Amino acid sequence: MLKPQATATRDLVNLDGTWRFALVQSDIEKEAPWSKPLPGTLDAPVPASYNDIFVDPAIHNHVGWVSYQRTVTVPRGWSQDRYFVRVSAATHRGRVYINDKLVAEHIGGYTPFDAEVTELVKPGESFRLTITVNNELTNVTIPPGIIEVKQNGQKSQRYFHDFYNYAGLARSVWLYSVPKAEYVQDVTVVTDVEGSTGVINYDIKTATPEASNSNSSSVHVVVVDEADKVVAEASGAKGSVKIPNATLWQPGAAYLYQFRAEIRQGGKVVDSYSVATGIRTIEVRDYEFLINGKPFYFTGFGRHEDTAIRGKGHDSAYMVHDFQLMHWIGANSFRTSHYPYAEEVMDFADRHGIVVIDETPAVGLNLAIDSGLFGKKLKHTWGPEYINDQTREAHADSIRELIARDKNHACVVLWSISNEPSSSEEGAREYFEPLVKLTRELDPSRPVCFVNVMFATYDKCLISDLFDVLCLNRYYGWYMHTGDLPTAEAAFEDELKGWVAKYKKPIVMTEYGADTMSGFRSYYNAPWSEDFQVAYYNMCHAVHDRFPEVVGEQVWNFADFQTAATHIFRVDGNKKGIFTRDRKPKAIAGVLRERWNAKLKELNEL
Ligand code: GCB
């Protein structure tokens, strides 16, 4: 799915700003918030999660629908166009109304959708745009959750993932146009390298909504380098173009060509769309992860889209600052834990040569963690009562939408289809096999992983052989052998030996970390102190360095982040950040900086 862009044949109007806002208090069909101006006096910023904007527990804790509303005018000049409202994310379910009419509904809180307006409002006219957003998570949504009704009749939301269920319109809303007669609907690029020649294999889909003169039109591609020089051209909707002496997209040294798909009619360009394309290869060979044929070592983070007040709201200042911090500390990669991030973030990673493990929102498919941590009776994850066939369909949709959105990003080197599912529980294999197959069909060009939870060790995990890379989250010294680093070290090393002996696959440590209160110092390395965090990471790194099969380390987490208030072992959120929530470094930051910059130097010298 293409991100809207302004070109000579397309326009783009940004609808961000403050919108009218109201909770839906009763039955949404009866209240019909779209049918009239919203009641009350609240305004909400877009993009932002709404939860922390207002000083009102009723809004913060609301479970159900909310409404956003504003007036939009269709530009006068759009009579030859089709036009759409594009919602970059409505978490977790969104409906779009043009005046009184429902024009789109979408489930899945972190991927975009469009609503066509063309037939409903003429150019130059205004309309009431209402977007209703629902934050409920059930056993058939991704991520899943459970809704309970309290004694007082109010709904409450439980979920099994460790980040706050921020909701609303956390990413931009747009109005955009495409040419009515024929336009570029989708572009897929897959790159390759032959000696010093870069190859872009492409597939362009066009749409001809009005049974039209498409016979007389043809598709062309033009590839332009960073100096704006045309370096290759070709004709046809499917094929490949070659770029002699291509500059490759490298981790830490990005280079992007503009791959322009054009529809031409009688020599005239009637539509064009450009995809920023980094030419690079990815390969998993034995236990190596190769980018452009060279062994790669992931340094960096599991992250969250999370800041004070905005929640998951996209913010360019935070984005640029976070990338600056990653550069400063020597991070060459991150994982979009635990959901697809804003498209702007993916574009930025492409531009700055940061490698991304791109993850679906399939997190919390695990009732064993909850039972294990709190000593509750073990409940089964896989089966009709919780994660069932319908959930798997929603999961499949989340994979389809992630790949449709992010397939052209050079930065994406690995798809992660789930974080910490209950992979050692009976039923996991039956659940995952078709999803792995689907991912490979949708994108044969990239390796696939899932992220393994600490209980599902090499002797218990039922699905690791289905994947290309072993991604392990391990908390030896924190959740296990808390504070006892010598015992933790021995246990961690033992487990890694088990994985290495059983699988000939690269291992990426996708999570390891310790909660740390910024400013708490201890002569005795007490857990929660900055000193313990340093000692903990030094222990883990000593173990990583004993295994050539470990090809990456992404610490948990980039910054402190908000979690559900019902997690009594969290005080105002998860504190495993290397940076605080407002991006101040903890003592560990300097230690990582030294280690990772040395690693990057080694990599560059290979
Ligand atoms: C995990 C989860 C992550 C949590 C983390 C923790 O294994 O993948 O979402 O935040 O542990 O800090 O407990």
TrEMBL record:
UniProt keyword list: Glycosidase, Hydrolase
Listed transmembrane segments: none
SUPFAM superfamilies given in the database record: (Trans)glycosidases, beta-Galactosidase/glucuronidase domain, Galactose-binding domain-like
Limits of the Glycoside hydrolase family 2 catalytic domain: 282-597
Domain Glycosyl hydrolases family 2 sugar binding stretches: 14-179
EC number from the UniProt entry: 3.2.1.31
Domain of life of the source: Eukaryota
One Pfam entry name: Glyco_hydro_2
Residue span(s) of domain Glycoside hydrolase family 2 immunoglobulin-like beta-sandwich: 183-280
Similarity section: Belongs to the glycosyl hydrolase 2 family.
Record NCBIfam families: PRK10150.1 (NF007538)
Protein name: Beta-glucuronidase
